[in-house]
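Why should sequence recovery work at all? Because a backbone constrains its sequence more than one might expect. Tight turns favour small or flexible residues, buried strands favour hydrophobic ones, and helices have their own preferences. The token representation captures these environments compactly. In the example below, the structure is given first.
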């Protein structure tokens, strides 16, 4: 294959992948999107979208409704996602500890990973309470204003912290930390305390705490969070929740062969 052919193939692949990413936005567009919406959203011509979507449909990565003509993600994505998640041994190890944590604190517990400048939900055990925090596996939240994000950033390099800050720190609630200096101070407190706190900084009326899981080199690989209504996760409950969180993440770390660094 000549260099121009390689460049064309690479460009086509990137644009085909952009179709999948577009269809994955907003909860996967449950009702699907029209060809016009897809072309407009991607800045491509309709003919280009049709050409790129054809092999995706053959691979069942994209479905097209026979009646409405709308496009949505195909079933093959579920298989790929499941295979990827099954490779994450941390989910298998963490699962019983997440369940135990829910039983202890009565709130929703999440397992998350870090993809700067965001965090990604990879597993959860929901609270038995009728009023609880709602989330979706695979969804993302900004790192700077979440307990989990701060649990990662507290042990990250300055370059990573700078990257997250450079991505922007808009206020998501009236309590969001929007100052880089205040964020760095909070990260220092997180290292000292052993767990991070989202004090209604990301979602209205939701308070969270999170603690990191380390690998054998002391790098944070995942984090566990406890999230719930601020009326139940009150400030006076946070130390007890934090203690149970750090016990759980220490156990996960040890079972995965990791090592918890000495407190700073």
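From this structural description, the recovered sequence reads:
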């Amino acid at each position: 294959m000549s260099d121009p052919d390689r460049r064309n193939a690479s460009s086509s692949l990137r644009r085909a992948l952009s179709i999948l990413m577009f269809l994955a936005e907003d909860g996967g567009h449950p009702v699907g999107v029209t060809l016009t919406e897809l072309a407009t959203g991607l800045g491509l011509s309709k003919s280009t979208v049709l050409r790129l979507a054809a092999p995706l449909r053959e691979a069942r990565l994209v479905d097209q409704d026979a009646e409405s003509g709308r496009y949505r993600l195909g079933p093959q994505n579920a298989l790929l996602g499941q295979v990827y998640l099954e490779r994450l041994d941390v989910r298998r190890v963490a699962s019983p500890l997440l369940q135990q944590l829910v039983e202890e604190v009565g709130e929703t517990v999440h397992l998350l990973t870090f993809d700067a400048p965001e965090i990604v939900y990879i597993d959860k055990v929901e609270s038995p309470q009728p009023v609880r925090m709602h989330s979706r596996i695979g969804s993302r939240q900004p790192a700077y204003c979440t307990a989990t994000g701060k649990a990662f950033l507290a042990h990250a390099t300055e370059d990573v912290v700078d990257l997250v800050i450079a991505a922007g720190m808009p206020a998501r609630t009236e309590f969001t930390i929007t100052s880089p200096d205040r964020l760095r101070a909070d990260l220092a407190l997180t290292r000292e305390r052993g767990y991070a706190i989202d004090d209604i900084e990301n979602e209205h009326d939701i308070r969270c705490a999170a603690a990191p899981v380390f690998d054998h080199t002391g790098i944070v690989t995942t984090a566990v969070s406890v999230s719930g209504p601020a009326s139940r996760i009150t400030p006076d409950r946070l130390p007890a929740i934090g203690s149970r969180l750090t016990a759980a993440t220490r156990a996960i770390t040890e079972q995965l062969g990791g090592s918890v660094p000495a407190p700073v």
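A few observations help interpret the result. The domain at 3-79 is CATH 1.10.10.10 (Arc Repressor Mutant, subunit A).
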